[in-house]
Specification:
Elements (H helix, E strand, L loop, with lengths): L5 H8 L3 H8 L7 H14 L5 H7 L5 E6 L5 H16 L3 E6 L4 H8 L9 E4 L6 H5 L7 E4 L8 E4 L2 H14 L5 E4 L9 H15 L9 E2 L6 H13 L6 E4 L2 H13 L9 E5 L13 E5 L1 H20 L35 E3 L2 E4 L2 H4 L5
Parallel strand pairs: 1-2, 1-3, 3-4, 4-5, 5-11, 6-7, 6-8, 8-9, 9-10
Antiparallel strand pairs: 10-12
Helix pairs in contact: 1-2, 1-3, 2-3, 5-12, 8-9, 10-11
Length: about 375
């Protein structure tokens, strides 16, 4: 028996081939009734989508790139897992590239690696500047993660300044008055560390605590050894402190080790809080309080935004509105990403994803104490 084709599904469902294509591509402007009929026909006939052929017909490869600074940083590894899951729902394959926070590598990724084998890029830049991103003519569609470098690009992040302010406020609410910021940066800038430092300083100011530049503890990386070395240095220098705001969980986990080695009790003597809610913090001793970004939401919104941009670049008509006559709103945002979006190019999206403060033993003490 011959393999069923899209025209067979259309004939069986009593709709056009374009409507079947719109259902397969999950366009929002197909009515629920039409979608149900078409999917039932697909199931009854045993139709299977030829993904390679579908992508090629639209001038696509079906491959997107996720570019992160370092894959062995747990936050980026966990984020990559979520991106892959979301991409699979859209029949996309993810190429993962490690930039090493190197500008040349990030520029190469931004340019599509000098090839046309990726349809779009999700990029977490650390070394790029706004000037690097300003002229992207001819580059693949791109969604940026992290702090916003310019307003002309799709962007997904948490509110890092607000999150750091909330975390610092919590430490102060515990009666801590000498809070050090491990990884803090006393300089203007658009990076994540700068934003978190601004939030830290804002919380101190709200509480009437004078900012001491020496309370910003520099690090040479955002890994556990750097956190351990930084806290060992301040202990060696005789700096007095009763709390640590660490700008990621890796720094916090390293700090916990050094405090333990020096007989400093956590949280009795020093309360510690980190960022990212990585798995290791749930198993450390004590367990680590942290700011938890919604990594699944970051991945979902980023993939959906990128998918929209890819569709705009290769299918500017946005699909055939046939099938919308039964009550579906043809101007509804696709995938819930762009409210009020119809066919055509949409303005850049700046999406702030939720975060929450997760309080564990490193600030709260053991349960029941």
């Amino acid at each position: 028996m011959a393999r069923p084709r899209i025209k067979d599904v259309a004939r069986h469902a009593g709709v056009s081939e374009k409507t079947v294509s719109n259902v397969i591509n999950d366009y929002a402007h197909v009515s629920d009734r039409t979608r149900t009929v078409v999917r039932a026909s697909i199931e009854q006939l045993g139709y299977r989508v030829n993904l390679a052929g579908r992508h090629l017909r639209k001038g696509r490869t079906g491959i997107i790139a996720l570019v992160v600074p370092e894959l062995d940083i747990p936050y980026f590894a966990e984020l990559a897992r979520h991106v892959i899951r979301e991409a699979e729902k859209c029949s996309l394959t993810v190429l993962i590239h490690q930039s090493g926070a190197d500008r040349a590598h990030e520029l190469a990724a931004l340019a599509g690696f000098g090839s046309t084998f990726v349809d779009g890029i999700i990029l977490s830049p650390l070394a790029l500047t706004a000037d690097d991103l300003r002229d992207r003519a001819g580059f693949p569609p791109t969604v940026l993660l992290g702090e916003l470098l310019e307003e002309g690009a799709d962007h997904v992040a948490i509110d890092n300044e607000r999150a750091a302010r909330e975390a610092t406020r919590h430490l102060i609410s515990l009666g801590r008055r000498t809070v050090l910021a491990v990884g803090g940066i006393d300089a203007p800038g658009l990076g994540t560390a700068e934003a978190r430092t601004r939030g830290y300083r804002a919380a101190l100011a709200e509480a009437g605590i004078a900012h001491d530049p020496a309370a910003l503890v520099p690090v040479d990386s955002f890994r556990m050894p750097a956190g351990a070395r930084a806290v060992a240095r301040v202990l060696r220098d005789g700096v007095r402190f009763d709390a640590l705001l660490c700008l990621n969980d890796q720094l916090a986990l390293g700090a916990l080790r050094t405090l333990y080695e020096h007989g400093v009790r956590v949280p009795e003597d020093v309360a510690v809080i980190g960022f990212d809610d990585v798995e290791g913090g749930r198993f450390s001793v004590p367990t680590l309080s942290t700011v938890a970004p919604d990594k699944a939401a970051v991945a979902k919104v980023a993939v959906q935004l990128l998918r929209r941009r890819i569709e705009e670049a290769t299918d500017p008509d946005g699909g055939d509105p046939e099938g919308a006559r039964d009550g579906a709103d043809p101007d509804a945002g696709r995938d819930g990403v762009v409210d009020g979006a119809g066919p055509g190019v949409q303005s850049p999206q700046d999406r702030i994803v939720a975060h929450r403060l997760v309080l564990r033993e490193s600030t709260e003490g053991h349960e029941g104490r």
